[in-house]
Predict the structure.
Amino acid sequence: MLGLIVRRIFATIPVVAIVSIIVFSLIYLSPGDPAAIIAGDLATTEDVDRIRAKLGLDQPLHIQFGRWVWRLLHGDLGISIFSNLPVQRLIGQRIEPTLVLTVTTTLWVILTAIPMGILAAWRAGSWIDRAVMGLAVLGFSFPSFVIGYILMFVIAVKLELLPVQGYAPLADGIVPFLRSIILPSLTLGLVYTALVARMTRASLLEILGQDYMRTARAKGLVPMRILLRHGLKNAAVPIVTTLGAGIALLIGGVVVTESVFGIPGLGRLTVDAIVRRDYPVIQGVMLVFAIAYVIINLVVDLIYVLVDPRIRY
Amino acid sequence: MPADAPETSREWLRSLLRTHPTMVFGAVILVLAFSAALLAPWLGTVDPLRIEPIARLRPPSATHWFGTDIFGRDLWSRVIYGARVSLTVGVAVAAISISIGLVIGLVSGYLRRVDTIVMRLMDAMMAIPAILLAIALMALTRPSVRNVIIAISVAEIPRVVRLVRSMVLSLRDEVYVQAAVTIGARLPAILLRHILPNIMAPLLVQGTYIFAAAIIIEAALSFLGAGTPAEVPSWGNIIAEGRNLFLLATWIVLIPGLFLSVTVLAINLLGDGLRDALDPRFAKRL
């Protein structure tokens, strides 16, 4: 068991390594001179040279790569072109709202989407099922910036129930914090809810067709009990996989959601970096999000090993 | 054709409407969207870039059906012309990522040695959220519709490769493929004649989902300032320009947002319908 877990942890190392190589090499794939593009149209030759030197683009490729890896291993993500501050410090300053928003959203999505999927599968074909599936299609179709503005318009502007924009840290008290996070979290979580509810329903329906489910019914067990004890346990693996893979939706969505609601997190940092063409910051955020994704999916895989005795790597 | 197939096209349409109402709805909306994009100059639009400072931020009215923006530009015209950009990006990304992903997936699924390397690369690319990968690529190029298409295609390719590869892996052990190998068919013939036809249907369905995803990502990129240039009206950058004025002029954000969402909804419904129609096994599952 322990050897298994250790092996799985080591298996993520090549993925993380390749992610960093991709993030490193993107700049060389760009057509034309990246330093000139980052410097912008109004830049002088000196500006371009300065940026080229700062990004290390004036060095031979293998030296650049060696330095990049060496710095990464020391937790150094480079220096922002715009503010001259270390990228890891900028990320550290902005990570709290993003982390809080994604964790809160993940929690409520798990607590609502899985029961929704169970209900839909339990009453497959009924109006409950159709309502859940309808909501799922809508969740996939309405992008977060549209949902966000609709919610903001109805709930914050017209009904004046919640603040329109902004973020109140938990340190300022629980009520302002909760009020500031409800709309962004709803916005962010809708597509994730859609995905998880749909997957829960689909995997349960597949399990419901199995022989042992018929046996359980034949034994005279209560339907809901069969569904939860026998069905959900066996459907757990695809549902947990979807929860892990769906984190990608949350990470992509949080960048947009933060811009809609004016939340000063990593998403805003990214948007500011886009406007200023601050490439090291974009690189840093990309790397942090990708590594977070890999680690979350590692944890998901380890959960399988603990939950499902059939799985042996 | 099956024996019980309806004889006239009208009957066929009626039965389709009865069995797959949402798919028909999706198809109708999509035809409308494409027509609007194609016929944009003849739909009561003016030049979407024409500035009319005296008529700034007008709410929807008889002269400006969808109102005007901060520069007094007619929003109806901008939204209709914006459809051209969104649909072009959607179709182009779907076509490009499916074609490239198909080739990589076919080869990778069949040749074990290539497979390990390619799949490691694809897994790593999929760990980077599509939007962020596209943002990074856009930060390194000049904003243009062409570059947006390339950036989103690159981000979507790994998903296609995975799908194609997994299907090739399950097909390569089928008896008819083994038979082709036995009689000495060469690799390209096996892939193109025996495996490709069997993955076309799921690939078509995947294509509709990529079409929908690309429209959303293009809008998100433009919304974040990393998409199509400001002088090309797209649904995303109309929304982006309206967001600072949201409390003053909600229509600038909500109208293009609604067009975008309904179009994506239509594509998704069409995709779900196609999936059910092409693969009845899969239909029961999702």
